What does this fold into?
Amino acid sequence: MSDLGAPAHSPYRVGYAPGAYDLFHIGHLNILRHARSQCDYLVAGVVSDEMAELAKGRRPMIPLVERLEIVRSVRYVDAAFVETVPDKVETWRQVRFDVIFKGDDWRGTPKGDRLEKDFAAVGVDVVYFPYTVHTSSTQLRRALDALSEPLDVRAEPLSAERR
It folds into this structure.
């Protein structure tokens, strides 16, 4: 085993782990750690702000340059790549990975089925890792949005019986 936790003979040479990596959390770290244990070299694909908005309907809270620096600094990541096109096979043509890693929330979905079909055609495996259900960037974003909502200062005065 290497000091990164990858076995001496990893099943794959180059792995690719795409994501927005917005509000970086333990689920992101788990995906990158597990992905690195399955390959000799791990490329993390960080989707551009525009791609994230296209996929999720909103821009990330953390700008691309900062998300890229955070992901690049994770010890399990050998390289970080800015993903600017929606077609993952086009990204493969640029990066040339043997396996793509996704959260298992994609498994059995139309987008996951399409990903598997597209990559089977070019000899790339799709490996799913458990999705961290108790922590997600969407949940963190909702909590931050709730904290930033102004308090309702027009609250009704207490009635005589509640005073």
Q: What stands out?
A: Confidence is low (pLDDT under 50) at residues 1-7. The helical segments are 26-37, 49-56, 64-72, 88-95, 110-120, 137-148. The longest strand covers residues 39-47. The beta strands are 12-19, 39-47, 79-83, 99-103, 125-129.
